[in-house]
Amino acid sequence: MMRLPDPFLPIIDIPKAYTQQYAKETCLLTRNPLSGSWEEMTWAHFGRFVERMAKAMIHTGIERGDRIAIFSENSEMFLGTYLASFKVGSIAIPFYASSSASQVRMMLEHSETRLLFVGEQSQYLAAVEAMSEMSQKVQLVLLDRDIERTGEDKESIYLDDYLRIGDELELEGELQRRRELWEIDDTALILYTSGTSGVPKGVQLTFRNVQMTITHHAIEIQELKPGKISMNFLPLTHIFELMWCMLCLSMRVKIAINRNPKKILQSLAEVRPHYMCNVPRFWEKVYVGVYEKMQSFPPLLKKIADESLRVSRKYHFEYRAKGRKPPFWLKMQYSFYSMILLDRVKKKVGVERGLFFPTAGAALADKVQAFLLSIGVPIVYGYGLTETTATVAYCHSDGFEFGSIGRPLGGVEVKIDEQAGGEILVKGDNVTKGYYKNPEANAVAFTSDGWFRTGDLGSMDAEGNLFFKERAKDLFKTANGKYIAPNVIENLLTSDALIDQAVVIADGRSFVSALIYPVWDMVKEELRKRGVANIPEAPEALSKIPETHELLQERIDQQLSELASFEKVKKFYLLTEPMSIDNGMLTNSLKTKRLVVEKYYEDAIRDLYSYHQLPDLTKS
């Protein structure tokens, strides 16, 4: 068995060990749905739940290597079920809470899952529909007593009844036997990548992958302290959030579980966490809100705000980001402006106690990162994949090159394959052992000497800072032979306060165009400020008036001013409905399904390029 550096226990041992050592210490914070208050759950309580769940799994026939699935919004039960699965030696497979019945069926059948936990009514109905068309037997456990079962359902069981199954049985010996059989290279998880096209692939992650990731983060992130609070916002299905929570549990950091993603701003204001992992889009919205507010200050206060940003930029970028100690006078200035303004701004959002906010999953605009760091929001930009058990590289607190995605995590090797156009290759104990039952994908994913092909293009400087360019398959080539990085352009566009979503169209086209979903209420407000009369209320009508197009064109030109001329958006089409998971245009991890979007808006895109105006020379 692999020897881990003290004091890091294998994640499989954490619940029992911490229940014994820290029984009265708070482990989780959960919001009471009736009172709205946040309640504390101790290690004794949480550890007991994990133990009962593990015994129930054993009693209902779950063997080592069996697959169990979790289909739910975030909850303490979701987290506990992961740990119980580890304990009995089964393989946990999380499903995104928004997965459709057809997606659920595909994953259940492909993984040959035996046991499925569902969290809420919508997941239950999707699961029942999926299972009605399956021949394989799947036991269904309902995590919420409020779920109403269908009349035909006679076999599902509610969680409290399921847990009672093993309460009266002497199963400690069996649990100990399974612990002795546990190996570091056992598969712990299978995560199905959402994918923007094609059939999802099941990424297998072992305990070695999980433990390596926990251990190196625990060693390197000095800001992580027992007793501090982390906000759980991203889905526990997402490898980024899952591994962060496993790290927090190992480090005895309290996890506040935000069950409803739409209430995150309320949760932040109530909990005021020290840590929270998130995606760049969240921070872009924070940036837009805070920056717009500071720009609207009265002249004197705006002057103070501008000076505070100047001092903060100097403090963070000339010293902190480069690992240098700021001079006393600069520290005093920064402390002064933090006290009179910056801390108040952060308090409005609920992030004034922030110590470490890891951010990954998409490109982060330089100006967003610079602004947030300048006002003292400790976002830590990084890069990783499901296949690398999250982190490959991140911006270390002892210095990083601005604009990079940081330096590799300890134990992770990175190199650039120039023969493949600059593809980023990764090797280390964090890399997946392969895709489940998919030898064809495995053959493509690894080089002959064992390096994992990320499919991302990048570069690395002499100091080891990694720079992300673009997904190799997402590079667009225009009809003029120019290469376009759509994600970079989209990222710049959505950092504008008036633009909520953007999809760039350019592949094989003569110029760059875009589909834009604006923040319609803000568009109307801006038009009023400009003195536009008779502003339509409905987005459908508002999208057709010339003043709206003039306003958006100005904002687009402003955001893309530093790009090359061939990268700039020449024409755009305004959407009146947002792209979402429900309408099939976004994946469960909120990535754009470009092919779906382009197909849906095929006529609008055709009009942008005026194809309908060209004569059809095939007809006489």
Secondary structure topology:
Elements (H helix, E strand, L loop, with lengths): L13 H8 L4 E6 L6 E5 H17 L7 E5 L4 H13 L2 E5 L5 H11 L3 E4 L2 H12 L6 E4 L14 E2 H6 L7 H10 L5 E6 L9 E5 H14 L8 E4 L6 H12 L3 E4 L6 H8 L8 H16 L3 H19 L10 H22 L7 E3 L6 H9 L4 E7 L4 E5 L12 E2 L3 E6 L5 E6 L5 E2 L3 H7 L6 E9 L5 E6 L4 E2 L5 E2 L1 H9 L4 E7 L6 E7 L1 H10 L9 H4 L3 H14 L9 E6 L19 H7 L1 H7 L12
Parallel strand pairs: 1-11, 3-4, 3-5, 5-6, 6-7, 10-11, 12-13, 24-25
Antiparallel strand pairs: 1-2, 8-9, 9-18, 13-14, 14-15, 16-17, 17-19, 19-20, 21-22, 23-24
Helix pairs in contact: 1-2, 2-3, 4-5, 8-9, 12-13, 12-14
Could you characterize what this model shows?
- The chain has 620 residues and is an alpha/beta fold.
- The chain folds into 3 domains: 11-182 and 221-271, ANL, N-terminal domain (Rossmann fold, 3-Layer(aba) Sandwich), CATH 3.40.50.12780; 278-377, no CATH class; 475-613, GMP Synthetase, Chain A, domain 3.
- The strands form 7 sheets. It has a 5-stranded parallel sheet with strand order 4-3-5-6-7, with helices on both faces.
- Helix 12 packs across helix 14.
- It is globular.
